[in-house]
Amino acid sequence: MELSTNYRQMVFDTLAHALTRDPNAQVRAKAAESLGKLGETTATPLLLEALTNTNPTVQHNVIQALGQLQDATAVPQLLQTLKHGTPDLRQTAATALGHIVSEATIPGLLQALQDEDPAVRGKVAQVLGALNAEAAIPALLNLLIDPDPAVEAHAIEAIGAIG
Questions:
Q1: Predicted pLDDT at 46
Q2: How many other CB atoms are there within 10 angstroms of residue 23's CB atom?
Q3: What torsion, rounded to 10 degrees, do the Cα atoms 5, 11, 15, 17 define?
Q4: How far is residue 142's CA from residue 63's CA, in Å, rounded to a whole number?
Q5: Of residues 101 and 36, more confidently modeled
Q6: pLDDT tens for each residue of 128-141
């Protein structure tokens, strides 16, 4: 059911207020999640600001919301999270980047194939496969000798998906 413009703006304003001002991290996390589902790219600046929140659940939901919004202006900060976040946040950032069409996405994901965490390398391989990123094939072939068998399996699946 589509909300009328007035209600949609009221919902957006309420969620934006909850994301930026509520003292409860659970409320902020749910507000981020809901902003992503609402699909308004005008939420991107608020979400990018909320990405600096220290609560991991808030950060996780913000990253997911940014991926749902598919706004290319979020790519630089998502790439920073892909490089410097916790392993869980790096995986979430890789998934989010897989939803955003941008010239910077593929090179950033290719760099992340060198991540120290095998779960991140595996997730990035999956995302590159889903993106059908032909440019990733040489790097994915290198993962076929990864010390982690799960990473090798993800690389094989990605190569198969790309063709």
A1: 97
A2: 6
A3: 90
A4: 28
A5: 36
A6: 999 999 999 999 99
Between vectors from CA 83 to CA 82 and to CA 89, what angle results, nearest 5°? Answer: 40
Neighbours of 138 (CB within 10 A): 9
Q: What are phi and psi of 87, to 5 degrees?
A: -55, -40
Sign of the alpha-carbon torsion through 5, 11, 16, 17: positive
Contact 70, 52 (CB under 8 A): no
Contact status, residue 116 vs residue 148, Cβ threshold 8 Å: no
Query: How far, in Å, CA of 81 to CA of 76, rounded?
Result: 9
pLDDT averaged over every residue in the chain: 96
CB-based burial of residue 5 (10 Å sphere; 0-12 exposed, 13-18 middle, 19+ buried)? exposed
Task: Report which of 124, 122, 134, 123 is spatially closest to residue 161, judged by C-alpha positions.
Answer: 134
| DSSP track, 103-133 | TTHHHHHHHHTT-SSHHHHHHHHHHHHHTT-
What's the mean pLDDT in 82-100? 98
What tokens were used for 95? 């998934």
How do residues 102-132 score in pLDDT, each as one tens digit? Answer: 989 999 999 999 999 999 999 999 999 999 9
